[in-house]
Amino acid sequence: MVKLVFLCWRRPDISHERYVELLLRGHVPIAPAHHPTLRRYVVNVVEGTREPAPALDSIGELSFDSLADYRERLYDSPEGARVVADDVAGFLGGAHAYVTTEHAPPSSPSPPPGVRSPGAKLVVCVARASGLGQAEFRRHWRECDLPRALRHAAATGYVTSVVEERLGEGGPDYDGVATLRFASDEACDGGLSGGSTGATGTDPERARFLGTIHAYRVVEYVERW
């Protein structure tokens, strides 16, 4: 499967709280009904960041059997496309989208659709260090157990994904996305790799391997799995 990651922010005339309400109570029930090729759908509501990062309100993870299913067969009908577009216009200010491939498949979540997942979660978007080739980054990202630069002693699970393509124009030039899970909010409070989550941390591997780290603390809702 291919996973699309959408980094989303709200319209300037609504609050974060209103955005979340419109997303969870309005958009989430509508979108899957009109996306027949959508295999998995996870909504992550952003609660904060670990050090400065571009402002976001939610991060969507949408999985399809192929990229063509998203590009060519996303909607069930022209009317379905209109319904979804009209709904999105009410709360979404914009989004950056990335096509990714997972290299550590997650276990199936236990919560039923629409229920907040237990524990805590970080979504970490990274760009490779200056001077590091894309091929070397991808090899390290795929072949290593969670790269040392992102390790967290309290993490109970993780998924790493390689960014294959950025859809549209604009947005940070990320090379990878990782999600880390924790048993509780308290367990999530420590820093990645035992220290700062910033790109200028003291971990030698971080300085050699990663140029940018944007980490978002999120609340997860599994809507389809």
Taking all Cα atoms into account, the compactness measure Rg is 17 Å
Question: Tally of extended strands?
Answer: 8
Q: Summarize the main sheet.
A: 8 strands, antiparallel, barrel
Q: What is the overall shape? A: globular
Q: Outline the low-pLDDT stretches.
A: 194-201
The proportion of residues in beta strands is 35-45%
> What is the terminal-to-terminal distance?
12 Å
Tell me what you see in this structure:
Helix 1 (16-34) packs antiparallel against helix 3. The chain has helices spanning 16-34, 67-71, 78-88, 134-143, 204-209, and strands at residues 2-10, 38-49, 58-64, 92-102, 120-128, 155-167, 176-182, 210-224. A hairpin with an 8-residue loop joins strand 2 and strand 3. The radius of gyration is 17 Å and the shape is globular. The protein has one domain: Alpha-Beta Plaits, CATH 3.30.70.100. An eight-stranded antiparallel barrel has the order 1-3-2-8-5-7-6-4. It is of the alpha+beta class and 225 residues long. Residues 194-201 have low confidence and may be disordered.
Write a short abstract of this structure:
With 225 residues, the chain is an alpha+beta fold. Helix content is 23%, strand content 37%.
